[in-house]
Amino acid sequence: MSQHKVVLLLGSNLGEQKKNIELALKKINEAGNNISQTSEYLMSAPVEFVSSNIFCNIAAIIFTHLSPIQLLDCIKNIEVEMGRINDSKVSGGYTDRIIDIDIIKYNELNFKSERLEIPHKKHLFERDFSRILLKDFI
Q1: How many whole angstroms separate alpha carbon 102 and alpha carbon 120?
Q2: Would you say which domain of life the source belongs to (predicted)?
Q3: Which of 20, 41, 68, 82 is the most buried (most CB within 10 A)?
Q4: Residue 46 preceded by cis peptide, ω within 30
């Protein structure tokens, strides 16, 4: 099986944000993925919704044997295990969340389905905090 290079963005704006992100990274690793690099943490205001809770964000490069959809299922399961209730694709909008994990790039793949779009264009081109975190990863 070949290894796929994937760029993830993780964020949290509820509870102990850094600990939430660290736990999510641990769970990603325990699921059989190899975390090869992480960025510095970056604090940022919520984007596309109003909240008084500031986000803590980090970028990570992982290597995985999982397909894009298998990886999406893996990270969505981690989000649910950690207590995330609302998924923005399901609820139709953004809300505060204990953890958010997004697949930004998967090798050089261009992929689009109802559940997943790679590369994640909003993070690559529209969101300032993402561009800061991803500058050394893309």
Answers
A1: 8
A2: Bacteria
A3: 20
A4: no
